[in-house]
Task: inverse folding
């Protein structure tokens, strides 16, 4: 187990370097010059532009720029933003808490409500509950997230005034509730469906019959045997989804005015802030890598037959 | 059935949770209302994260400008007709040929840290901003001042001086500005953001200052929560006449205009500076008399480039194209009244605007348009290509303009969409525009000069269409060399008439502000640069 984890962690290094390299090159290949953009519609002052580029090291060959970036990164220096002259690490740590809170809340919704709905449907597969839940999940997966977002915002926020329509203070969990529900709704439907299929299938398996035969109460049989065995595909999905929620909240963040990671990378991309984009995306990659590792390790916990050497 | 019942429970749990949070936010609001009608109330304005550090000479976009223009007071400002009035200056006077300007400051002004504002503070700040080593993106604004080339040489050269020789302090409250060439309207330029003073503490640590600026304006900077809000509070010892009638301003950062609009509707935000295009059709009904629509100094044009097929096209063709565009209908339908049809190269809020300067060239007349195009020898390749950036909400009106041209002139019209503004600019810089590009210009100072010499002089760096006309250049130069403002304005008005004959661009419409305010505030108005006059807003 320990060796497996170490091996996986070591594998992350080339993935990380490769990913940063590709993103760095892609940023470089994009048309548009962030320094030029400081002057907007107006023609730039050539001398000033050259001086700024020299100052930021942007006049160097691209490979040298990447090398400088990478060596800085290893020493914990994420670089500086071009327009705002802020440290990129400050930008990331500013945006991160909001996204983490939103993601956790959405993840909580996805996992709890999704699994509960899936279980309810799976146990009564073919019944009325199953069909109602099928309908709800179908609705949630087919309506685009920005439609749900604006709908909820208009009705719950503006018309009925139950919640504040936007997030003005990202430390306020109450304000994050609505965006978290919107963000969770799509994954929630997937989780419900995955759980339902898995539960419906395993319900008729041999070990369930044995469990009942040896006198376990129905609820205990479901909790300890059925649910645990049905969770493997769901955990895989939830793991990937955590990463998605993290990075893919751009639309939701935009609608509800949450200044999170998704938003930060979007604005940085628009203003060609290379260091910021590479920094944030590398960070997201790290999260993905760690989460998949945790998911793989969780398999072994759920199913003792899976062993890692 | 059991499932359905539990679903009901979940639903009611959510309702309870919603209700709980709603109560919370109501509580906050009533706190503000209870103190109502007083000078301690805080105005919440929509904004965003300033792109650049908060230093006056490094501020080029609206979010930063909203902070800078309230933390700092300019020497002078402009009224709705583009006339100058003094703010921090007692007087700004030119010598006979407008080559030396004397600025007298008003007495009793202090920075927010308590130190007195003197002429030296202005001179030092401008010298710092102009110096090439300090990397300020507005440094070229000081280019008129004698000695600028010594501190800000051409590319590849080293600066030979630390200070511009043209700035000299006469006494504590007076300084002189000597220009390399006479500029009769130099005082107009002084109304731009970088021409402000900086306190002594700035030079110790410019970086720290840019996170917590200290000015001499009506509001003192209090706090900057990145990406969330910037808090400004009324400066008690403010010496200017526009002392705030409220307690301060919170500039709230929004990810988008629509989010801000939703907050305005629910009174969680007090002033919105621009309504999202998608809400334009409804905002006047939504807000009633709390909706504000007024013009500001910006123009939108489409500009033919002179290096391609459109190089030797008869201006008559361009006049024809102009007359084939139904500006009235497009501005009132597609643009929902957010623009006003243009009838001049300079908008109405600037000094020197001539109503109806275009004659009938901006009037919709398809028949005359066809005649003009035919007389001029037809549209090259029978095709018009309009380049624009997809991230600015231009698609709709470009399509509408194209449809006009197709229907009225029987030509092809297509758009060349660049994904964003940076890419659009890159094509313009590199002379790679196919036919027309979308031109937009917002006033730096409200004078007709600003809308012409920067865009259509053959040597102007922002002249991406590479328009080159001797007569126009000559009239511009005459205007620049004139000894008095009146002569300058008149020369440019004359030049404008020539512009309508030579058509360096097709003016489409002027910009409007579509703004609004909440039930919590009153007396909301905007200046001609589109920024709210924060000091005048009263909190109920």
Result:
């Amino acid at each position: 187990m320990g060796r497996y984890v170490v091996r996986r962690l070591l594998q992350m290094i080339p993935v990380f370097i490769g990913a940063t390299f590709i993103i760095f090159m892609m940023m470089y290949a994009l048309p548009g010059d962030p320094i030029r953009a400081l002057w907007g519609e107006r023609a730039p002052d050539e001398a000033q532009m050259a001086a700024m580029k020299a100052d930021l090291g942007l006049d160097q060959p691209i490979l040298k720029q990447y090398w400088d970036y990478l060596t800085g990164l290893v020493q914990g220096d994420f670089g500086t933003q071009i327009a705002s002259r802020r440290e990129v690490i400050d930008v990331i740590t500013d945006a991160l808490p909001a996204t983490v809170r939103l993601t956790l809340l959405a993840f909580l919704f996805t996992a709890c409500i999704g699994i509960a709905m899936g279980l309810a449907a799976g146990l009564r597969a073919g019944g009325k509950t199953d069909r109602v839940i099928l309908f709800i999940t179908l609705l949630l997966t087919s309506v685009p997230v920005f439609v749900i977002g604006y709908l909820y915002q208009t009705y719950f926020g503006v018309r009925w005034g139950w919640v504040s329509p936007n997030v003005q203070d990202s430390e306020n969990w109450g304000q994050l509730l609505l965006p978290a529900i919107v963000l969770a709704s799509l994954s929630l439907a997937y989780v419900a469906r995955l759980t339902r299929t898995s539960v419906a299938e395993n319900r008729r398996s041999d070990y369930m019959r044995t469990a009942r035969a040896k006198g376990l109460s129905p609820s205990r049989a479901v909790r300890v045997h059925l649910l645990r065995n049905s969770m493997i595909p769901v955990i895989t999905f939830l793991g990937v989804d955590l990463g998605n929620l993290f990075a893919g909240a751009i639309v939701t963040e935009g609608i509800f005015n949450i200044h999170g990671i998704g938003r930060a990378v979007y604005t940085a991309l628009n203003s060609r802030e290379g260091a910021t984009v590479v920094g944030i995306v590398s960070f997201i990659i790290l999260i993905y890598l760690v989460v998949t590792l945790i998911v793989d390790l969780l398999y072994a916990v759920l199913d003792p037959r899976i062993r890692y050497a | 059935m059991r499932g359905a019942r539990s679903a009901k429970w979940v639903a009611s749990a959510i309702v309870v949770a919603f209700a709980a949070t709603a109560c919370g936010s109501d509580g906050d609001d009533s706190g503000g209302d209870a103190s109502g009608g007083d000078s301690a109330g805080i105005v919440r304005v929509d904004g965003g994260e300033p792109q650049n550090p908060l230093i006056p000479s490094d501020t080029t976009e609206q979010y930063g400008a909203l902070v800078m223009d309230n933390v700092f007071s300019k020497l002078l400002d402009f009224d709705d007709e583009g006339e100058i009035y003094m703010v921090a200056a007692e007087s700004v006077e030119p010598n006979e040929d407008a080559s030396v300007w004397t600025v007298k400051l008003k007495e009793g002004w202090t920075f927010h840290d308590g130190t007195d504002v003197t002429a030296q503070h202005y001179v030092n700040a401008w010298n710092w901003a102009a110096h090439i080593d300090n990397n300020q993106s507005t440094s070229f604004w000081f280019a008129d001042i004698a000695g600028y080339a010594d501190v800000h040489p051409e590319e590849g050269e080293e600066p030979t001086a630390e200070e511009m020789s043209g700035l000299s302090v006469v006494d504590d409250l007076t300084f002189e500005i000597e220009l390399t060439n006479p500029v009769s309207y130099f005082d107009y330029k002084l109304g731009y953001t970088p021409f402000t003073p900086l306190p002594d503490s700035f030079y110790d640590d410019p970086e720290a200052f840019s996170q917590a600026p200290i000015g001499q304006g009506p509001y003192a900077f209090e706090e900057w929560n990145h990406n969330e809000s910037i808090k400004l509070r009324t400066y008690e010892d403010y010496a200017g006449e526009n002392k705030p009638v409220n307690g301060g301003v919170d500039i709230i950062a929004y990810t988008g205009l629509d989010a801000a609009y939703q907050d305005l509707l629910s009174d969680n935000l007090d002033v919105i500076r621009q309504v999202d295009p998608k809400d334009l059709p409804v905002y006047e009904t939504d807000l009633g008399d709390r909706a504000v629509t007024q013009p500001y100094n910006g123009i939108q044009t489409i500009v033919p480039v002179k290096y391609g097929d459109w190089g030797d096209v008869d201006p008559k063709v361009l006049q024809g194209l102009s007359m084939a565009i139904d500006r009235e209908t497009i501005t009132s339908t597609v643009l929902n009244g957010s623009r006003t049809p243009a009838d001049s190269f300079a908008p109405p809020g600037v000094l020197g605007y001539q109503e109806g300067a275009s004659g009938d060239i901006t009037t919709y007349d398809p028949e005359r348009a066809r005649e003009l195009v035919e007389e001029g020898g037809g549209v090259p390749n029978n095709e018009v290509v309009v380049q624009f950036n997809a991230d600015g909400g231009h698609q709709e009106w470009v399509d509408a303009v194209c449809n006009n041209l197709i229907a009225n002139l029987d030509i092809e019209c297509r758009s060349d969409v660049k994904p964003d503004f940076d890419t659009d600019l890159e094509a313009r810089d590199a002379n790679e525009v196919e036919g027309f590009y979308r031109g937009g210009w917002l006033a730096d100072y409200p004078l007709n000069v600003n809308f012409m010499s920067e865009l259509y002089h053959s040597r102007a760096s922002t002249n991406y269409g590479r328009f080159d006309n001797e007569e126009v250049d000559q009239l511009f130069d005459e205007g620049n060399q004139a000894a008095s403002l009146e002569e300058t304005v008149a020369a440019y008005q004359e030049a404008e008439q020539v512009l309508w004959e030579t058509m360096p661009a097709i003016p489409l419409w002027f910009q409007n502000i579509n703004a609004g305010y909440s039930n919590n505030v009153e007396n909301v108005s905007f200046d001609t640069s589109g920024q709210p006059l924060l000091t005048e807003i009263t909190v109920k």
Q: What stands out?
A: The mean pLDDT of chain A is 85. Chain A is about 75% helix and 0% strand. Chain A touches chain B through 69 residues (CB under 8 Å). The CA atoms of residues 122 and 199 of chain A lie 5 Å apart.
